[in-house]
Amino acid sequence: MQLDTMMEAIEVLARERGVGVDAILDAFANALVAAYKRSPGAAEEARVTIDPESGQVVVYAQDLDEDGNVIDEWEDTPEGEAFGRIAAQSFKQVMQHKLREAKRERVYEMYEGREGDLITGIVQQVDYRSVILDLGDAEAILPGSERIPFERLERGNRVKALILEVRNEPKGAQIVVSRSHPDLVRRLLELEVPELTDGTVEIVNIAREPGHRSKIAVISNDPNVDPKGACVGARGSRVRQVVNELRGEKVDVVQWRDDLSQFIAEALGPAKVKEVNIDEDEKTADVIVSEHQLSLAIGKEGQNARLAARLSGYKVDIRSDAEPVEEPVEAAEATGPGSSDDSSAEEVVAAEPAEETAGVDDSSSEDVVATDETDDEDAVMDEDAVVKADTDDVAENGEDESE
User: Fold this and answer.
1) At 354, which CATH number?
2) N or C, where is the chain less crowded by C-beta within 10 Å?
3) Across residues 211-222, what is the average pLDDT?
């Protein structure tokens, strides 16, 4: 059986789909075996050989013993259009399955080991559990836990994400990506800052609360290069691209300092810090700010202090210079997301207005006013009582005189 034209088609298919010719020939041989077994008078077992150069197909019928060993083998290649038609249908089914498997393997090999890389995809499907991104040659899944809180993604949006994991599953390679991971900010900044790519500037640490704010500590390996200026860019052009990709999330760039006190003071920006006292044994930093800078240093719901603590690795206590030294207010800890003391920060912010009106007790003043009014009323009542008493006396005296 000669398959000259079939061999040409197989070679073209192998080039287009990125599948090896040998893999296609194996699939084709299995299809021919299945077609042979369905032909009249076929043996129970058979094997097929295909010459890759000439396209010559030979079917060998086999006789096996109880252990599965070949006892006898003879050529039994069917002739006629029926065999060719059945073989073509079987080949089509086998090839579809083979191509799907080859594609899954190719996708897995393409993305295997790329954890931490940045990819760009188009939003294909959105639901409450996950988002499906079309990467062109594969699909990626963005779980709900890895999305930016309150970010609105619509079908057709082009977004960037960080590859978290690549799994080889029976249904194919599954690529899990994230938009809330801190390293996403790192990769986005590397796209905009050449100094990060060539190693002139390095990112020491990143503290991020997705959707709200990120703080990045950078250091320069070249004394002539300002690391903060390199990352921010002229008029903030470089960091602005990162902010736009993160849908408006604020990004603060802080220069790393060997002096930890100075570094924590800068990490608490934009607040102005007066003094930072470091306790290296306890890993704590006592920060003193002016009274009008207290709420700015702590940030909304303690966010600014929390990020500064994660960035420095120290527990940060913030208090006003007007407060007693014995009663510092704990603002944040450096133990990671969710472990900082938000309630303390809220108490400080809430305590500010009370400090401004110290010594004025509104309830007491109302009581004073109420008491004065009551006293006045009582005085008037007493006067009326006196007048009434006098009148009664006069009336009694008059009666007596008349009697």
Assistant:
1) 3.30.300.20
2) C
3) 96
